[in-house]
Design brief:
Length: 308
């Protein structure tokens, strides 16, 4: 006969279950491209609620607006420029695939030092660089060592950034919705609603917008929509506490991987050969299984702000 649970334990289980069930869906909204326009940057920082702000590290107003944001209690990120597939000028502080390792790390250091308030980093443009496994490895190793998180803006469907961040155990998520690819108030409002509905159906969502006047006009009226929908606006760091964002700790699965993972399958049982991990796709797949990679809603580059 099965043992009955004590009444007190049943009470705890009911309490925990109710708390989990009643936890509101979460939405994080990043405002990118902060640093060129002082008026639009300041207006963005004064939005009510837990918005997160991605600062262009070498932009003229970037450091000052980062300080102001921190004083206002806002979460700050580095919005690091990266090389793009399209022939367009890159912002100061851009990382490119042509850089040597020392050049790459020197530029990254300058950007991180410029915005000391930052808790994480996301890519500005970057449709070219985020497809480069070596560059993404350099970036994620550094971010992981220094305790930053990474958000993949998904400016291309072929980005390797999120997967590489997971490999290096960097807390990470992918952008779900671009709010203002079309700078039309009605369309922006529809994108905001799409992000809210995604949060309600999945439990969380991550959206990215920009300090365009039209975007700010919509976000300044966001409070009632969130309250009516029961969705909580949270900083990115709060979303990153969800299990979906936690780095995978592969060593917890098996302290000593089977020998088949350390030898080429076509040589077993034979003489070991030197292993070059970057060339052994079978090993990478065995240790790091492919994860779902939904097609982003928009695959366009970030829109550049008029610089005033």
């Amino acid at each position: 006969m099965p043992r009955k649970l004590p009444i007190a334990l049943w009470g705890l289980l009911i309490f925990w279950g109710a708390a989990a069930f009643s936890a509101p869906p979460q939405l994080a909204i990043i405002i990118d491209d902060i640093g060129y326009s002082a008026p639009l940057g300041e207006r963005s920082l004064r939005l009510k609620g837990d918005f997160t702000y991605a600062i262009l590290p070498q932009a003229p107003q970037g450091a000052r607006l980062a300080r102001l944001g921190a004083e206002l209690g806002k979460e700050i990120m580095v919005h690091n420029p990266m090389s793009t597939l399209k022939p367009r000028p890159l912002d100061a502080g851009a990382l490119t695939e042509q850089m040597s390792y020392p050049e790459f790390q020197h530029t990254l250091t300058q950007n991180l030092v410029a915005i000391p308030q930052a808790r994480g980093l996301n890519n500005h443009m970057g449709s070219r660089l985020t497809q480069d496994p070596q560059a993404m490895g350099w970036l994620m190793k550094r971010l992981g060592d220094q305790g930053y998180y990474f958000i993949d803006s998904r400016t291309t469907a072929d980005s390797q950034a999120w997967e590489t961040a997971r490999h290096y155990r960097v807390p990470t998520l992918k952008r779900d919705v671009f709010l203002d690819h079309d700078q039309d108030i009605l369309q922006i409002a529809r994108q905001v609603d799409q992000a809210i509905q995604l949060a309600k159906s999945r439990g969380y969502a991550l959206a990215i917008g920009h300090p365009h006047p039209e975007t700010l006009a919509v976000l300044e009226q966001l409070g009632p929509a969130l309250e009516a929908s029961g969705v909580a606006l949270v900083p990115v760091s709060t979303l990153l506490q969800r299990p979906e964002a936690a780095p995978r700790h592969y060593t917890a699965l098996c302290l000593a991987p089977p020998i088949s993972l350390w030898k080429r399958p076509d040589t077993l049982p034979g003489v070991d050969r030197p292993l070059i991990v970057s060339q052994q796709t079978w090993l990478r797949q065995a240790l790091h299984p492919a994860l779902d990679n939904p097609t982003p809603l928009h695959q366009n580059q970030h829109l550049l702000l008029n610089r005033d």
